[in-house]
Design brief:
Layout lengths: L5 E10 L2 E11 L4 E5 L6 H8 L7 E6 L2 E3 L7 H4 L2 E4 L11 H5 L1 H6 L8 H14 L15 H14 L3 E2 L5 E2 L2 E5 L7 H16 L3 E5 L3 H7 L2 E6 L2 E7 L5 H9 L18 E9 L6 E6 L3 E6 L8 H6 L6 E6 L2 E4 L5 H6 L2 E4 L3 H4 L7 H5 L8 E2 L2 E2 L1 H14 L16 H13 L5 E5 L7 H16 L4 E4 L3 H7 L2 E6 L2 E7 L5 H20 L1
Helix pairs in contact: 6-7, 15-16, 17-18
C-alpha cells in the first residue's frame, strides 16, 4: 500500500502550563478527504499552525508520502512539501483582479524586470478555471465576486500550488487543508465547493477538512479524526460515523437536548409588527411578533429572508415598510442603525468580526462599548468597574478564556458569539435581531447560544432569527416563516416546527409561489 500523503506521530505542543496537543497521531491517505472535528480549544488550530510553520511543536514527527520531514517547518516550507491552506478569511485581495490573486505568489517571485504578458496570463487562468469546470472571468475584481466564487478561487489557487516533484521526478499530488471554508457560504455554494474538492481527491490529491458542521463533514469526508482537550478522542470511517457517535467523541458525553414546549397555535398577543416591507429582493413582507417569542425566518438561498433583520435595523434601506413597536411607528426607509439602537433594537449579524465587533479591541471594550457612560464618575472612566462588570458577564455566558482584557479576535468563534450575546442582552433590548447566530460555532457552544436565546425570550424579549440552519430553528423557535422569491409563503407553528418539516417546506416553497402566480 502507498504510504499516507501526510502523517503526524506523537505531536505535542504546550503553551505555558496548558497542553494544547498531547501525542496526536493523524494519517491522511492519498486521494482521501479527512475530516478534523473538535470543540473550540480542542487543538485543531494549533495542529494546523504547526503544519503551516507558524508554531514549533515540542515533540512529534511529520511524514510526507512516507518521507520524514524535520520539524519545525520553516516559514513557507509547507508549499515545497505540497501542502497548502484555505482559511476562513480566504486570504484574497479584493482590490486586485482574479488573475492577480491567482498568480500573486508567482508574480512576487519574479524579477522586477521580468515582462508579464497579460494576454498569455489571462489565457492560462481561463484554461485553469476550465479544467475545474468554473466560469470565472480572470479580469473581474475579486471584490465583485460572489462569496462562492471567492471561495472557489481560493481553493483553485491553493490546488495549483500543490503539485510537487518526488525524488524520482514523478509528479505527486499534495494535501489541501481547508479550515472552515464554508462558514460564510450558502448551502448551494457548499455543494459547488464540495464538487471541486471531490475532483481534487479523484485526481490523487488529499484534503484535511476542518469544520464544526457535522452534516458537512459526514457528507464530504472519507474518514474523521476527533480531537478533545488536545488529544485524539477517536478516528472513524465516515460511513460508520453517526451524528450521535461524533457528538459523544467531541464532548466526551451524550448531548442532552432541551425539550422546549411550544404553544400549538402560537397564540400570544402581538407586541409589534413589520408591515409591507419591500425592496429589490423582498416584496410586501408583513408579520407580527409577540413578547417572549422566538420567530424564525428561513427559506432557500436567494429567497430574501436574510435581508429582513438588516432592513428592520436600518443597515439596509428598503423602498417601503413600517415597523411597529409599543407606542412607536417607524418608517423603515428612514430608519438608521443609530435610531434603531435608540429604539431598543439590537442586531447580531452573521459576520461578527466584520460587522459586530472591533477585533483589535479587548473584550471589555467590545462588550461595554455601548454602555461606557454608566462607568464615568466626575468625568473619569472607572476602568476597574468595567473589568469587574465584564468578568461577571463572561462568567454568566461562559466566555473563554475568562480574561476581560483578552483581544476579541483571538477568541474562538463560539466565544466571540457568546461575548456578543452578553453585550446586547445586558442592555435588555426591546427587540433582538439575529442572523445565523451559530455560524462557525462548535456543538457545545451552539447549545449555550440556544440557551441564551431562550433566556432572552423567557425574559420577555421578542427575538427574530433569520437562519438557513433548519436544525437550529427547530431547536429555539416558536414559529417559523418560510420565504420564497421574496415573499412569505407559509408559517409553521407548534409541533410542525421540526427540522424535517422546515426542510420540506423550504424546498416545496418555489412550487407554492409558482402556483400563486398562476392563480
Amino acid at each position: 500500500m502507498s504510504p499516507p500523503a501526510l502523517e503526524l506521530r506523537n505531536l505535542c505542543k504546550s503553551f505555558g502550563a496548558t497542553r494544547a496537543l498531547k501525542n496526536v497521531d493523524l494519517a491522511i491517505a492519498p486521494g482521501e478527504i479527512h475530516g478534523l472535528l473538535g470543540e473550540n480549544g480542542s487543538g485543531k488550530s494549533t495542529l494546523i499552525k504547526i503544519l503551516s510553520g507558524y508554531h514549533a511543536p515540542d515533540a512529534g514527527e511529520l511524514f510526507i508520502h512516507g518521507a520524514p520531514v524535520r520539524l519545525p517547518l520553516r516559514p513557507g516550507q509547507f508549499r515545497k512539501l505540497g501542502l497548502d491552506f484555505v482559511h476562513q478569511d480566504l486570504g484574497l485581495v479584493p482590490s486586485l483582479s482574479v488573475l492577480e490573486n491567482l498568480r500573486l505568489g508567482d508574480f512576487g517571485a519574479r524579477s522586477r524586470r521580468f515582462h508579464i504578458s497579460w494576454r498569455t496570463e489571462r489565457a492560462r487562468a481561463k484554461a485553469t478555471f476550465d479544467r475545474y469546470g468554473l466560469a470565472i472571468d480572470p479580469s473581474t475584481l475579486v471584490g465583485d465576486l460572489s462569496p462562492v466564487e471567492r471561495a472557489l478561487l481560493a481553493i483553485v489557487r491553493a490546488v495549483e500550488g500543490l503539485r510537487v516533484k518526488s525524488s524520482t521526478g514523478e509528479e505527486v499530488k499534495g494535501v489541501l487543508v481547508l479550515d472552515e471554508p464554508t462558514v460564510f457560504l450558502p448551502r448551494e455554494g457548499s455543494v459547488e465547493l464540495f464538487r471541486l474538492v471531490r475532483e481534487i481527491a479523484a485526481a490523487g490529491g488529499s484534503a484535511l477538512f476542518v469544520s464544526h458542521d457535522l452534516d458537512e463533514v459526514r457528507e464530504i469526508t472519507d474518514a474523521i479524526t476527533v480531537l478533545r482537550d488536545g488529544a485524539v478522542a477517536g478516528t472513524v470511517r465516515t460511513q460508520d460515523a453517526t451524528e450521535t457517535r461524533l457528538i459523544e467523541l467531541i464532548l466526551g458525553r451524550r448531548l442532552v437536548e432541551s425539550i422546549y414546549s411550544r404553544d400549538e397555535d402560537g397564540g400570544r398577543p402581538p407586541l409589534g409588527s413589520v408591515e409591507a416591507l419591500s425592496d429589490d429582493v423582498v416584496a410586501d413582507v408583513s408579520f407580527e411578533f409577540s413578547e417572549g417569542e422566538v420567530l424564525g425566518l428561513t427559506g432557500l438561498v436567494g429567497s430574501g429572508f436574510e435581508r429582513v433583520p438588516y432592513c428592520i435595523f436600518g443597515a439596509e434601506r428598503p423602498q417601503v415598510g413600517r415597523l411597529t413597536l409599543p407606542g412607536h411607528d417607524y418608517e423603515l426607509a428612514r430608519l438608521t442603525p443609530a435610531k434603531a439602537l435608540g429604539a431598543g433594537i439590537a442586531l447580531i449579524p452573521a459576520d461578527r468580526l466584520r460587522d459586530a465587533a472591533v477585533g483589535s479591541l479587548t473584550l471589555v471594550d467590545n462588550i461595554l462599548m455601548r454602555s461606557l457612560k454608566e462607568f464615568f464618575r466626575l468625568g473619569v472612566l472607572r476602568r476597574r468597574e468595567t473589568v469587574r462588570e465584564t468578568r461577571g458577564l463572561m462568567s454568566t455566558f461562559d466566555v473563554r478564556p475568562p480574561d476581560p482584557k483578552a483581544v476579541y479576535s483571538t477568541l474562538s468563534g463560539g466565544n466571540q458569539q457568546k461575548a456578543l450575546f452578553s453585550k446586547w442582552l445586558r442592555r435588555r433590548p426591546g427587540l433582538l435581531l439575529l442572523h445565523e447566530p451559530t455560524q462557525g460555532v462548535d456543538v457545545g457552544a451552539r447549545q449555550q447560544i440556544f440557551a441564551a436565546i431562550r433566556r432572552a425570550a423567557d425574559a420577555g424579549t421578542p427575538v427574530i432569527c433569520a437562519s438557513s440552519d433548519y436544525e437550529q430553528l427547530a431547536a429555539v423557535c416558536d414559529r417559523v416563516l418560510i420565504f420564497s422569491r421574496g415573499r412569505i409563503v407559509e408559517q409553521l407553528v407548534g409541533k410542525d416546527v421540526t427540522k424535517h418539516q422546515i426542510t420540506e417546506r423550504c424546498y416545496s416553497s418555489i412550487a407554492v409561489v409558482d402556483a400563486l402566480g398562476a392563480a
